[in-house]
Amino acid sequence: MMTPASEGNSIWMRLFRPRVLFVLAVSLAAVAMLPSWLKRLPRLETRTDYRVTWSQIELPPGPKELPVNLPQQLEQMTGVDSLSLFDDRAAEKIAWALSKHPWVQRVDEVRLAFPAKATVRLTYREPVAIVERPQGMYPIAHDGVLLPPEDFRPSSVATYPQIRGIHSSPQGAAGTVWGDPVVESAARLAELLAADWERLGLKAIVPATTAEDAAHVRSWGEVSRSERRREVDGFRGPAVLNEPVAPGDQSAEKDHPPEFVVFTHSGSQIEWGRAPGDDRPGEPTAAQKLGRLNRYVSEIGELGSGYAIDLRHWHEISRRPMTAGRGVPQRR
Question: 140, 124, 138, 256: which is closest to 194 by C-alpha?
């Protein structure tokens, strides 16, 4: 029978066995060397296959004017060249950066994958019209948001519906709403007419209040290059208005939505009335007006020259010579 003293001696003898001492020594050495080993291990967050650069983001195809250097613009805007896959907010940061770009209307989803890649679902802003002034042009989307003028080539400007007779200038940078209800209503009308614009021979959308003056104003394309000046308030591009003009009384315009006239290349004017979304009782809807206009062209063959064609009547279209004032209209 072992006494307490002999039992204690037995434990110490076991601890000092060579095998036990070796294990203890290795364990102590490992603990001592652990910080050094950790420093020598590769840091995964710094490896390129764990870091997403802006050029590794897969974006859907967009409008033809979408800049090819969009990834570089995002890098310049954010000030960072890549994001770590270990960053829990990496997808959120990518979505935020894209949502701030003037060409992006909405970001729907950002998916991260290894090796470093991001796939994005988003909706781009589509240009629907060019707000035209003698000194320059402003491209806009369907909701009146200004798009970057510098992304539009002069050759592509003529492919979009033109909006003339606007007395306001943008109230913010590209990617923000113009700030004038007349422009926003004209943009909605341009979106409606875009598919039929060229076939119908349409030339410009003009507020009815400025139609007479706009008929005698040269378009941007008719102004010589030496007459075009760059804007100095932050907008860039070869064709941007440089005289800031304050918008009119917007509260009054909201109470009384504007009416529009559409100029044609043949020299006639279509008295359209209110834009889509501003319909009023007793006046055909925008879709009904477009249907009537298409039927009119299919029956008559053309819009003719020097006519005022009124689409606002509930039952019929009226046509009168523009030089004859507002006399007895011809019913169609």
Answer: 140
